[in-house]
Write a structure and sequence with these properties.
With about 200 residues, the chain is of the alpha/beta class. The chain is about 55% helix and about 10% strand. The chain folds into 2 domains: about 50 residues; about 150 residues, Leucine-rich repeat, LRR (right-handed beta-alpha superhelix), CATH 3.80.10.10. The chain has 9 helices and 5 strands. α3 packs antiparallel against α5, α5 packs parallel to α7 and α7 runs parallel beside α8. The longest helix has 29 residues.
Length: about 200
Protein backbone atom coordinates (compact mmCIF):
# COMPACT_ATOMS: atom_id res chain seq x y z
CA UNK A 1 0.00 0.00 0.00
CA UNK A 2 1.30 3.44 -0.90
CA UNK A 3 1.47 6.39 1.49
CA UNK A 4 -1.20 8.21 -0.52
CA UNK A 5 -3.57 5.24 -0.14
CA UNK A 6 -2.87 5.21 3.60
CA UNK A 7 -3.73 8.91 3.91
CA UNK A 8 -6.88 8.41 1.83
CA UNK A 9 -8.19 5.70 4.17
CA UNK A 10 -7.43 7.77 7.27
CA UNK A 11 -9.33 10.73 5.82
CA UNK A 12 -12.50 8.66 5.38
CA UNK A 13 -12.14 6.68 8.65
CA UNK A 14 -10.66 9.19 11.15
CA UNK A 15 -12.33 7.71 14.27
CA UNK A 16 -11.05 4.12 14.02
CA UNK A 17 -8.84 2.77 16.79
CA UNK A 18 -5.30 1.72 15.93
CA UNK A 19 -6.30 -1.99 15.98
CA UNK A 20 -9.47 -1.41 13.95
CA UNK A 21 -7.55 0.69 11.47
CA UNK A 22 -4.91 -2.07 11.14
CA UNK A 23 -7.61 -4.63 10.35
CA UNK A 24 -9.12 -2.25 7.81
CA UNK A 25 -5.79 -1.65 6.11
CA UNK A 26 -5.09 -5.40 6.01
CA UNK A 27 -8.46 -6.09 4.42
CA UNK A 28 -7.87 -3.32 1.90
CA UNK A 29 -4.43 -4.74 1.00
CA UNK A 30 -5.83 -8.26 0.53
CA UNK A 31 -8.63 -6.91 -1.65
CA UNK A 32 -6.12 -4.94 -3.70
CA UNK A 33 -3.83 -7.97 -4.11
CA UNK A 34 -6.76 -10.19 -5.12
CA UNK A 35 -7.98 -7.64 -7.64
CA UNK A 36 -4.48 -7.29 -9.07
CA UNK A 37 -4.10 -11.06 -9.40
CA UNK A 38 -7.48 -11.33 -11.12
CA UNK A 39 -6.64 -8.46 -13.48
CA UNK A 40 -3.33 -10.08 -14.48
CA UNK A 41 -5.03 -13.45 -15.05
CA UNK A 42 -7.82 -11.78 -17.04
CA UNK A 43 -5.39 -10.00 -19.34
CA UNK A 44 -3.46 -13.21 -19.99
CA UNK A 45 -6.68 -15.12 -20.60
CA UNK A 46 -7.83 -12.56 -23.14
CA UNK A 47 -4.57 -12.94 -25.07
CA UNK A 48 -4.65 -16.79 -24.85
CA UNK A 49 -1.42 -16.84 -22.86
CA UNK A 50 -0.88 -18.97 -19.77
CA UNK A 51 0.03 -17.73 -16.32
CA UNK A 52 3.17 -19.14 -14.73
CA UNK A 53 1.00 -21.36 -12.49
CA UNK A 54 -0.95 -22.72 -15.46
CA UNK A 55 2.21 -23.45 -17.46
CA UNK A 56 3.82 -25.27 -14.55
CA UNK A 57 0.63 -27.15 -13.71
CA UNK A 58 0.55 -28.61 -17.21
CA UNK A 59 4.21 -29.62 -17.06
CA UNK A 60 3.99 -31.10 -13.58
CA UNK A 61 0.93 -33.19 -14.45
CA UNK A 62 2.68 -34.41 -17.60
CA UNK A 63 5.61 -35.63 -15.47
CA UNK A 64 3.16 -37.37 -13.16
CA UNK A 65 5.18 -38.25 -10.04
CA UNK A 66 3.58 -37.99 -6.60
CA UNK A 67 5.58 -34.85 -5.79
CA UNK A 68 4.88 -33.09 -9.10
CA UNK A 69 1.17 -33.95 -8.97
CA UNK A 70 0.95 -32.56 -5.43
CA UNK A 71 2.69 -29.36 -6.57
CA UNK A 72 0.28 -29.04 -9.51
CA UNK A 73 -2.70 -29.49 -7.17
CA UNK A 74 -1.27 -26.82 -4.89
CA UNK A 75 -1.07 -24.33 -7.76
CA UNK A 76 -4.60 -25.22 -8.88
CA UNK A 77 -6.04 -24.62 -5.40
CA UNK A 78 -4.40 -21.21 -4.94
CA UNK A 79 -7.09 -18.54 -4.67
CA UNK A 80 -4.77 -15.59 -5.28
CA UNK A 81 -1.74 -15.46 -7.55
CA UNK A 82 1.16 -14.17 -5.47
CA UNK A 83 3.70 -11.88 -7.06
CA UNK A 84 6.54 -14.37 -6.46
CA UNK A 85 6.27 -18.11 -7.05
CA UNK A 86 8.66 -20.69 -5.60
CA UNK A 87 8.92 -24.20 -7.04
CA UNK A 88 10.66 -26.88 -4.96
CA UNK A 89 10.59 -30.42 -6.38
CA UNK A 90 13.04 -32.31 -4.20
CA UNK A 91 13.08 -36.12 -4.44
CA UNK A 92 10.45 -36.07 -7.18
CA UNK A 93 12.03 -38.78 -9.39
CA UNK A 94 12.59 -36.17 -12.10
CA UNK A 95 14.89 -37.14 -14.99
CA UNK A 96 16.58 -35.20 -17.78
CA UNK A 97 13.56 -35.95 -19.99
CA UNK A 98 11.26 -34.44 -17.38
CA UNK A 99 13.44 -31.34 -17.22
CA UNK A 100 12.73 -30.83 -20.93
CA UNK A 101 9.01 -30.81 -20.14
CA UNK A 102 9.52 -28.09 -17.52
CA UNK A 103 11.82 -26.14 -19.86
CA UNK A 104 9.24 -26.31 -22.65
CA UNK A 105 6.60 -24.91 -20.29
CA UNK A 106 8.90 -22.04 -19.28
CA UNK A 107 9.70 -21.34 -22.92
CA UNK A 108 6.00 -20.87 -23.71
CA UNK A 109 5.35 -18.59 -20.73
CA UNK A 110 5.34 -14.77 -21.22
CA UNK A 111 8.48 -13.06 -19.90
CA UNK A 112 6.40 -10.95 -17.51
CA UNK A 113 5.13 -14.16 -15.91
CA UNK A 114 8.54 -15.86 -15.89
CA UNK A 115 9.93 -12.96 -13.85
CA UNK A 116 7.66 -14.10 -10.99
CA UNK A 117 9.67 -17.31 -10.51
CA UNK A 118 11.81 -16.67 -7.44
CA UNK A 119 13.20 -19.91 -5.98
CA UNK A 120 13.64 -23.17 -7.90
CA UNK A 121 14.91 -26.51 -6.60
CA UNK A 122 15.36 -29.91 -8.24
CA UNK A 123 17.64 -31.23 -5.51
CA UNK A 124 17.95 -35.01 -5.17
CA UNK A 125 16.65 -35.74 -8.66
CA UNK A 126 18.89 -37.56 -11.15
CA UNK A 127 18.86 -35.00 -13.94
CA UNK A 128 22.55 -35.40 -14.87
CA UNK A 129 24.54 -33.20 -17.22
CA UNK A 130 21.82 -33.17 -19.85
CA UNK A 131 19.20 -31.89 -17.44
CA UNK A 132 21.55 -29.24 -16.08
CA UNK A 133 22.39 -28.02 -19.58
CA UNK A 134 18.70 -27.80 -20.46
CA UNK A 135 17.99 -25.72 -17.35
CA UNK A 136 20.91 -23.40 -18.11
CA UNK A 137 19.36 -22.58 -21.49
CA UNK A 138 15.86 -21.85 -20.23
CA UNK A 139 16.48 -20.35 -16.79
CA UNK A 140 15.68 -16.68 -16.32
CA UNK A 141 18.38 -14.32 -15.04
CA UNK A 142 16.05 -12.90 -12.38
CA UNK A 143 15.84 -16.20 -10.46
CA UNK A 144 16.91 -15.55 -6.86
CA UNK A 145 17.60 -19.07 -5.52
CA UNK A 146 18.63 -22.31 -7.20
CA UNK A 147 18.93 -25.75 -5.61
CA UNK A 148 20.61 -28.59 -7.52
CA UNK A 149 21.99 -30.69 -4.67
CA UNK A 150 22.67 -34.35 -5.42
CA UNK A 151 21.57 -34.25 -9.06
CA UNK A 152 24.39 -36.37 -10.62
CA UNK A 153 25.76 -33.32 -12.41
CA UNK A 154 29.33 -33.49 -13.73
CA UNK A 155 31.65 -30.84 -15.13
CA UNK A 156 29.84 -30.66 -18.46
CA UNK A 157 26.52 -29.65 -16.94
CA UNK A 158 28.15 -27.76 -14.09
CA UNK A 159 29.98 -25.46 -16.50
CA UNK A 160 26.70 -24.51 -18.18
CA UNK A 161 25.09 -23.73 -14.83
CA UNK A 162 28.14 -21.67 -13.88
CA UNK A 163 27.95 -19.60 -17.07
CA UNK A 164 24.25 -18.98 -16.48
CA UNK A 165 24.94 -17.98 -12.86
CA UNK A 166 27.53 -15.42 -13.96
CA UNK A 167 24.79 -13.56 -15.84
CA UNK A 168 21.96 -14.15 -13.37
CA UNK A 169 21.57 -10.65 -11.96
CA UNK A 170 18.93 -11.69 -9.44
CA UNK A 171 20.67 -14.79 -8.08
CA UNK A 172 21.42 -14.63 -4.35
CA UNK A 173 21.80 -18.31 -3.45
CA UNK A 174 22.97 -21.39 -5.34
CA UNK A 175 23.29 -24.85 -3.79
CA UNK A 176 25.02 -27.43 -5.98
CA UNK A 177 26.68 -29.75 -3.46
CA UNK A 178 26.90 -33.54 -3.72
CA UNK A 179 27.48 -33.58 -7.46
CA UNK A 180 30.29 -35.07 -9.57
CA UNK A 181 32.10 -31.85 -10.37
CA UNK A 182 35.83 -31.31 -10.15
CA UNK A 183 37.56 -29.24 -7.49
CA UNK A 184 38.62 -26.78 -10.19
CA UNK A 185 35.00 -26.15 -11.16
CA UNK A 186 33.98 -25.95 -7.50
CA UNK A 187 36.50 -23.16 -7.02
CA UNK A 188 35.02 -21.31 -9.98
CA UNK A 189 31.59 -21.53 -8.36
CA UNK A 190 33.07 -20.23 -5.11
CA UNK A 191 34.40 -17.20 -6.98
CA UNK A 192 30.89 -16.04 -7.94
CA UNK A 193 30.21 -12.59 -6.50
CA UNK A 194 27.09 -11.18 -4.87
CA UNK A 195 25.57 -14.50 -3.80
CA UNK A 196 25.92 -17.35 -1.31
CA UNK A 197 27.37 -20.47 -2.93
CA UNK A 198 27.28 -23.99 -1.50
CA UNK A 199 29.26 -26.40 -3.65
Amino acid sequence: MTMSQDREIKRYYPKFTRREFGVLVGAFSLTLMTATGKTMASKLSQSNLLTLEESLQNALRAIGSDVTMAAADNFASSVVSSSILNLHLRNARITASDVKIIANALDKTPSSELARLGSFSLSYNTIGDQGAMTLAVYFIVTLTELGLVGCSIGDQGGKEILEWAKNASGLRLICIEENNISEELRNQFRSLKGMSVFV
